[in-house]
Design a protein that fits this description.
Length: 272
């Protein structure tokens, strides 16, 4: 399931680091087991797409088992076990939904679902339910104040910054020089594939394919013109955002290949 030769190196590094953390809080054997679980979850980024969900879930399950073996009567232990088991279950359900229903809803909103589990586990594990609710109220009130301050500061900074002068986008060199043409082609393709900026590529194609029949040209560039990047939800985990960005780059690369194929089918463009 793992596809990178660096997976073992990352596993050992994470196991050592998290085992030391676990030894400080859980004792020897539970601490080592906690480190192994964290290391398993850490190497999930080397797993194939969607298989990483199972790997992360297994890692959190092992960490939950490590905390459970501590046999503590403290409410923090109950809270940690409940939360880790909940996260492991979320990853398993996300995998099942993706494979069975082709739905990534749970994966895209994993942080939000984990937060719901954390709140529920805290209320259930804390000795006094009323005190737990009061603490959560204070926490959310503090977060709301910080968020409001962030919004105000962002608004003021945007007002004070003023508008910036826009630099006109340089048009491609239409001279039939192979080196200049290639450099310009590389620039516009890279801008689209890496950054999702379709304007330079569209300008390049239109200016260099002016000999094509207009309806044909419209159909050729329509997929590029209609491209919209799928935005990741604000509650998606960072690794999901990273994988979605990678999938979008691959999707844009496929669009470029299809564009080249269509252009060649209609005689190519000037300078190619």
């Amino acid at each position: 399931m793992l596809k990178s030769g660096d997976a073992l190196k990352d596993f050992v590094k994470n196991a050592v680091i998290w085992s030391l953390v676990g030894l400080g809080f859980l004792g020897f054997y539970p601490g080592l087991l906690f480190g192994v679980g964290a290391a398993v979850a850490g190497v999930a980024r080397h797993a194939r797409r969607y298989g990483d969900l199972l790997v992360r879930g297994l890692g959190f399950l092992i960490m939950a088992l490590a905390v459970f073996l501590l046999h503590t009567d403290l409410w923090l232990g109950t809270f940690a076990v409940s939360l880790l088991l909940w996260v492991a279950l979320l990853y398993a359900l996300a995998y099942v939904l993706r494979i069975r229903q082709n739905s990534d809803f749970l994966e895209r909103n994993l942080l939000g679902m984990a937060a719901v589990g954390a709140i529920s586990a805290f209320i259930l594990a804390y000795p006094s339910t009323s005190s737990a609710v009061l603490l959560l109220f204070y926490l959310f009130a503090s977060l709301a104040v910080f968020y409001l301050a962030y919004l105000v500061s962002s608004y003021l900074s945007s007002r004070w910054a003023g508008s910036e002068d826009l630099t006109p986008l340089p048009l491609p060199d239409l001279e039939p020089k192979r080196d200049a043409y290639s450099r310009d082609l590389e620039r516009v393709v890279r801008a689209f594939v890496e950054k999702g900026d379709s304007a330079p590529l569209l300008v390049f194609v239109v200016r260099n394919a002016s000999s094509l029949y207009t309806p044909h040209l419209e159909e050729i560039i329509r997929p590029i013109a209609n491209y919209r990047e799928a935005s990741a939800p604000s509650l998606a985990p960072p690794w999901v955002v990273e994988k979605m960005a990678l999938e979008e780059r691959r999707r844009r690369a496929v669009l470029v290949k299809e564009l080249v194929r269509r252009l060649k089918a209609h005689g190519g463009i000037r300078g190619a």
